[in-house]
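hey all, quick one before standup. I had two proteins in the batch that finished overnight and I want to keep them in one place so we stop losing track of which output belongs to which input. First protein below, input sequence then C-alpha cells straight from the run.
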Amino acid sequence: MPKLDWIGKKAVVNHHREVPFHLLRENPELSVGDPGSGNLLVQGDNLLALKALLPYYAGQVKCIYIDPPYNTGNEGWVYNDNVNSPEMREWLGRAVGKEAEDLSRHDKWLCMMYPRLASIEFCLTREHAK
C-alpha cells in the first residue's frame, strides 16, 4: 500500500487530539434564521471550529466546507497562501520542533492540513461520537 510521508508528519499525526475542546458561542448580532433549524455557520480557524463541533455534533455533521491555503506561493493574493505566516512558523516550531527548520513549503502545508482533515473525519463519522 502506498504511503504519503513528509518531514514533520510524526509530530502532527495526533495533533488534532491535543487541541482542546471548547464550546461554540452564538453571536446574536450575526445570527439569522430559525435557531432550532439545526444549521450552523462557524467562522474561525478551521481546526478550532471543528474541535468546537465535536462535543455536540460528532457523527451528525453532513457537510464541512473549509477554505485552506492552496500553497501556490502567491503572497500577493487575498491572503498569503504559502503557509509561511508568522503564526504558522511559530506553531510548526512548537508542534514539529527543531525538524521544522528544514520544512519545504509542501511539508508545511501537509503539517497544517493533516490535523484539520483528521478532525473532519471525527465530525463526519458516527463511530467516533461518544
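OK second protein, same deal, sequence then C-alpha cells:
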Amino acid sequence: MGSIPNLPGITSSVVATERLSTHVLSSGSGEEVVLFVHGNASSSTFWEETMLALPARFRAIAPDLRGYGDTEDLVIDARRGVGDWVDDLLALVDALGVARFHVVGHSLGGTVVFGLVAARPEAILSATLVAPGSPYGFGGSKPDGTPCFADGAGSGAGSVNPEFARRMGEGDRGTDDPQASPRNVMNGFYWKPPFVPAREEELLSGLLSEKVGADRYPGDAVPSANWPGAAPGRYGPVNAISALHSRGLAERFLAAEPRPPVLWVRGADDAIVGDASLFDLGHLGSLGYVPGWPGADVFPPQPMVSQVRDVLDAWAAAGGRYREVVIEDAGHTPFLEKPEAFAAAFHAHLGT
C-alpha cells in the first residue's frame, strides 16, 4: 500500500485515526508493542531491518510522521513544537488499541520521544533515543538551553540549504552537487563514509518522500534583525524543532511521572547531532563558513550531545535512570551501520 517496496515480513497499511490517516509499517505478532519514530528527511522505511530483528515477543509499528512518506499530507503547526507529532502518535496507538508500548526515536524522532514521554509517561514501557536532537531545539541555543536570540534566529527553516530543499521537492536522485544532491547528503552525513546501505535506493526514496514547500519542509522563515537574518516561522518540521518553538520541552520531559527507563544510543562519528555539528550555524560560523558570525558569546556552537546528557543527568537525579551507549565507527544512523551492536543494547533495554 505504501509507495516504497518493503522487505519480506513488513506489512504496509493505512490507519485512520481521529487526527489523520497514518501510513504504518508493521512486523511481528508479539504482545509487547514497539513504536518506531523516524527522523527528518526520512521515513518509516529506515526502520525495516531493525523491526525484523526484534525478538518474537514484540510487535513493531513504524508510522510515517505528518509531513512525511505516505501519511495524509497535513500542515505541521510549528508553534506547537513537537506537539502535532506527539498527538498524532498518541491518536495512532489509541486507534490500534495499544495502551502501553516501548518507543524508539531517531534524530528528530528522538526529540518527538521527549514529547511523548512528557505527554503520556504512564503509557511508555521504555524509551530509546537514537542520535536524538537536543530537547532545546536544533541550532540557536546556548549550552544551558537558552536561545541565543529571543526570536530563535539561527534555527528553523532559514538555516536549511534552499538548494537541498528544492532538489528534494523535485525528487532528484542524482549526484552532481556535492553539497545539495539528496543522495550525496544522505551518503555523506546520515552514516559514516564509506558505508553505503544495501537498500540505498529505498532509503533515498524515504528521504525524498518528505513534503516540500513554504508550509511543509523546511517551512517558512521570517526576517530578523539578528544573525544570520532569519527566524523560524509558523509552519514545517524544521521550525517545529527550532530553538524558538522547543522552549519548555526539556522541562516538561523532566516533570514526567512515572519515569520510564531511557536508553541513549549514538554513533561516535555523528556529523549531524554533535557538539560540533556540521549542520549548526553556530559551529559553521565559528569556522568562517557563514559570514557575519557574532562570536561565541552571542551565538556559540550548540553542544547538542552535552545538552542531551545534561537533561538525562537531571532525569536520573530526579529518580529516573538512563544508559548511554556510544557505537564506534558509526555516524548518525548506528542502527543501520552497526546493526549487531545496536541490537545488543536495544534488545537488552527492551528486556528491562
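Flagging for whoever picks this up: The mean pLDDT is 97. The domain at 11-350 is CATH 3.40.50.1820 (Rossmann fold).
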